[in-house]
């Protein structure tokens, strides 16, 4: 794994100690000599994160970073994500797991390619009068559907009125 990370570090012209730093940061220092193919799924996820950390980026985009991982590793990764954020790294996390989404400082919730909320976790719960993020998201979807149905009915009515006016 060290060779793989060294390759990426050379591409990015990262500082000499970066590979060791990221291996320690993701908790894989002891496995540094292992081949990537021999790693568990959770370890492979951490190697991917290590690659993303090379060069100390200011922005990291994570797509479903903890899907399929055991609860202990999920918690460890979220602790690492929080440490990165506390150091000033901006993390953009794409997730369908709402209990993980509320670990973020800010939420941008989307449905069918449209933004239905741009909020904080606490404001989301307060705005929807719910106690958990999944219920809040479902409440937003229902609210969005109701608003959409109203605008669809209104659009149909306006189209019908225009048609009737045109006919005379």
Written account of the structure:
- This protein is an alpha+beta fold.
- Helices cover 57% and strands 12% of the residues.
- It has helices at residues 2-12, 18-25, 41-53, 71-86, 98-101, 121-128, 133-167; strands at residues 59-63, 90-94, 107-111, 114-119.
- β1, α4 and β2 (90-94) form a beta-alpha-beta unit.
- α6 (121-128) crosses α7.
- The longest helix is centred in the C-terminal third of the chain and has 35 residues, at 133-167.
- The model has no long low-confidence stretch (mean pLDDT 89).
- Residues 147-168 are annotated as: Disordered.
- Keywords: ATP-binding, Nucleotide-binding.
Write a concise keyword list for the protein shown above.
57% helix, ABC_transporter-like_ATP-bd, ATP binding, alpha+beta, two-stranded antiparallel sheet, Putative ABC transporter ATP-binding protein YbhF, two-stranded parallel ribbon, 7 helices, 168 residues, nucleotide-binding
């Amino acid at each position: 794994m060290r060779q793989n990370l060294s390759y990426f570090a050379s591409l990015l012209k990262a500082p000499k100690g970066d590979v060791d730093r990221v291996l320690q940061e993701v908790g894989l220092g002891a496995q540094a000599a292992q081949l990537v193919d021999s790693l568990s799924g959770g370890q492979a996820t951490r190697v991917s994160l290590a690659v993303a950390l090379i060069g100390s980026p200011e922005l990291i985009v994570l797509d479903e970073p903890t899907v399929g991982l055991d609860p202990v590793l999920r918690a460890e990764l979220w602790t690492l994500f929080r440490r990165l954020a506390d150091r000033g790294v901006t993390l953009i996390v794409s997730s369908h797991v709402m209990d993980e989404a509320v670990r973020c400082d800010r939420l941008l919730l989307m449905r069918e390619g449209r933004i239905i909320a741009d909020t904080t976790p606490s404001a989301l719960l307060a705005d929807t009068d719910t106690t958990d993020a999944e219920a809040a998201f479902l409440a937003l979807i229902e609210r969005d559907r109701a608003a959409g149905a109203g605008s669809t009915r209104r659009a149909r009515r306006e189209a019908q009125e225009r048609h009737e006016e045109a006919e005379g």
